[in-house]
Amino acid sequence: MPNKKYKIAVIQLNLNDIAENNLKKCISWVRDAANLGAEVISLPELYSSHYFCQSEDVDNFALAEPLYSTSFIAFSALAKELGVVIIVPFFEKRMAGIYHNSAYIIDTDGSEAGLYRKMHIPDDPHFYEKFYFTPGDLGFKTIPTQKGKIGTLICWDQWYPEAARLTALQGAEVLFYPTAIGWHPAEKDEYGVNQHGAWMSVMKGHAVANGVYVAAANRIGLEQYLPDTAGIQFWGSSFIAGPQGEILAQASHDKEEILIAEVDLDLQENVRQNWPFFRDRRIDAFGDITKRAID
């Protein structure tokens, strides 16, 4: 029988350090989350390094790792030891010249339950991800685990209702969004409130429209590793929302934290019975959604 209730966690961290230190730090925080009762635990996007996409620099490709190497070995052993599911976002080297922004979903026995490759790749000032990442080719997937059915998307994916919908239609109970998003310091006073508000609103909307739990795991801290630049101030504010968009847990803008909330599948079913958005979709009229524009 599937679990009717289980606890999920997102971990909010400052990851502006070298890979070895970030790995040790994240292992420690995952242990803490498991000790608090979390059964499915997500780290932030690209956990193992500073956010290197602030520049276009071929030297940064050295930060990538092949599949099933350092990150998988460490977190597979940890998941098996703790009996938890761990979402591990990492910089994947698929082959020379092809790299992905990816996430392992590691099951309670240490096996790979699934792999996700970020589908939507941004290119904004100091978020130059198109230089580094090939768009994902595995599609949007719901991953069955021993704790529940998990959908994992990554950061820029969070702005796209199609990604949330296609994942939820496969049975996801929770949409996890490992994230690295923040303010350009010079813009924060003028645009910061609206930018942060839009980020929360769009994901709460995915929760409502799909009747799912949504969990976003962001970074914190000013990452200013390039000379003569202001860097990026990651805004934290990680959160977990329920299937009506209600905030179940929310972190600060500037502290390392663990957020835990309970997934209640009976509640989810009740919400979907009363708000039957899936039932009323006019799939016969949606064909144009696959066009770039309807001219």
Q: Name the strands of the widest sheet in spatial order.
A: 5-4-3-2-1-15
**What composes the largest sheet?**
6 strands, mixed
List the total number of helices: 5
Strand content: 25-35%
Helix and strand sequence:
EHEHEEEEEHEEHEEEEEEH
The residue ranges in which pLDDT falls below 50 over 5 or more consecutive positions are: none
First-last Cα distance: 49 Å
Radius of gyration: 18 Å
Q: Helicity, in percent?
A: 10-25%
* Shape, per Cα inertia axes: globular
Overall structural class, as computed from helix and strand content, comes to: alpha/beta
Number of strands: 15
Mean pLDDT: 97
Describe the structure.
The chain has 295 residues and is of the alpha/beta class. The protein contains five helices and 15 strands. The protein has a six-stranded mixed β-sheet with strand order 5-4-3-2-1-15. A six-stranded mixed β-sheet has the order 6-7-8-10-13-14, covered by helices on one side. A three-stranded antiparallel β-sheet has the order 9-12-11. The longest helix has 23 residues, at 188-210. The radius of gyration is 18 Å and the shape is globular. It starts with a strand and ends in a 21-residue tail after the last helix. The relative contact order is 0.16. The mean pLDDT is 97.
